[in-house]
């Protein structure tokens, strides 16, 4: 009876892991599709300044997908039968966490740069604004 319950739990966790991984893959596909569409529109309209915004859109989807993939890795460790597999899953989890961390840093930097550029453009376009120190 105990072995049957363990087998049922393992199979349930494996199905759940598969669904979480599939969700992550769908999120990546959506992000690539949306960013690709925006990229194509920017090329047609010759709006190369929008490339940073497009990168940020794709980065958000990739970061979310990495979280789902990491969740799937954690589920895998719950039923991993050997220390070797647990070690491999741990290494993958560390790599994905590092990727997500650096992607988040890049998104923060790109967002700050984009906001600074927008601020400069707004000040330059405002009539009657004299350049000088901020008050």
SSE series: HHH
Number of domains: 1
Helix % is over 70%
Mean pLDDT: 84
Number of separate strands: 0
Radius of gyration in whole Å, from Cα? 22 Å
Please identify the structural class as seen in this structure: mainly alpha
Measured by DSSP, the beta-strand proportion falls in under 5%
End-to-end separation in angstroms reads: 76 Å
The coarse silhouette is elongated
Please mark out the parts with pLDDT under 50 across 5 or more consecutive residues, or reply none.
none
Major sheet: size, sense and barrel closure? Answer: none
- The number of distinct helices, counting runs of at least 4 residues, comes to 3
Describe it for me?
With 135 residues, the chain is an all-alpha fold. The protein has one domain (2-115). 86% of the residues lie in helices and 0% in strands. The longest helix has 44 residues, at 2-45. The radius of gyration is 22 Å and the shape is elongated.
Notable characteristics:
135 residues, mainly alpha, 86% helix, 0% strand, elongated
Write the SSE topology.
Layout: H1 2-45, H2 51-79, H3 83-125
Helix pairs in contact: 1-2, 2-3
What's the quick description here?
By secondary structure, the chain is an all-alpha fold. It is built from three helices and no strands. The chain has one domain.
């Amino acid at each position: 009876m105990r072995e049957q319950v363990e087998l049922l739990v393992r199979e349930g966790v494996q199905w759940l892991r598969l669904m979480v991984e599939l969700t992550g893959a769908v999120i990546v596909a959506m992000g690539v599709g949306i960013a690709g569409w925006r990229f194509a529109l920017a090329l047609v309209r010759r709006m190369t300044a929008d490339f940073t915004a497009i990168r940020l859109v794709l980065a958000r989807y990739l970061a979310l997908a990495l979280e789902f993939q990491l969740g799937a890795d954690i589920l895998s460790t719950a039923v991993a039968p050997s220390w070797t597999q647990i070690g491999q899953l741990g290494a993958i989890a560390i790599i994905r966490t590092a990727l997500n961390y650096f992607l988040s840093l890049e998104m923060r930097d790109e967002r700050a740069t984009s906001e600074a550029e927008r601020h400069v453009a707004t000040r330059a376009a405002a009539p009657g604004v004299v350049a000088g120190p901020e008050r």
